[in-house]
Design a protein that fits this description.
Blueprint: E1 3-10, E2 19-25, H1 32-42, E3 46-53, E4 56-62, E5 67-68, H2 73-84, E6 93-98, E7 101-108, E8 111-117, E9 122-123, H3 130-134, E10 140-143, E11 147-151, H4 155-159, H5 165-168, E12 175-181, E13 189-195, E14 200-203, H6 210-221, E15 225-230, E16 236-243, E17 246-251, E18 253-261
Length: 263
Amino acid sequence: MRTNIVVVDAFTAEPYRGNPAAVCVLDEPGDDEWMQLVAREMRHSETAFLHPEDDAWRLRWFTPTVEVELCGHATLASAHVLFEEGRVPPPDSVRFLTLSGELTARRLDGAIVIDLPAEPAEAAPWPDDLAAMVGAEPRWFGQNRFDVIVEVSDAATVARLEPDLARVRTLEGRGLIVTGAGVRGEADYVCRGFFPNLGIDEDPVTGAAQCALGPFWAARTGRDVMVAHQLSERGGVLRVAHRRDRVEVGGAAVTVLRGELLA
């Protein structure tokens, strides 16, 4: 069996930055075991598999170890591939059928905007070892059904974090998102994401994290439209709009590899 595969760097206009995702566009549903093996082989945070279904596309995401319920950067990468290959007729918008319901993506001002469900975090009592886990003093602690969210003092603190991943592995859910206010004139907020339980020690740019961070920072800044920077080694820029029960996340994408799986 031969299958085309495309690697896209998402939330960046520069190759080899942002978050890479592998994308396989299939004619029909893929075998679960095969998709997980391909994702393990690719070793990206997520590998996306999609195939036509009615007038939409069925989309699934796999880390190197598990299938996940929601992934932002691989959704953006999938839309980028469909647009680039001319698989979506004008106007350039597409519907995805996923484990998180129907998601959409559209082209806007040279970027791609994906529409995701809002997943606000609720404040909660924090663990006694939270500061040791994060590697900084927390200012706020909360959770949604996916992740633990921790606010720290500022962008510089987020940038220099070295969390204790052994402690992060003890958390329920996907992992740990750490955030702080951005530098004025550059970003409204910054973040980093750590998901060792999914086989991802640090995610380069986490689109799905904005499902929680969008509502969180909209409440703090009084702005519904914001710019976020993810301060991983690769880095990424996200444009985030909080729309009641939805969060729109926009960014650029660039194809860096096209190939063919031979087995």
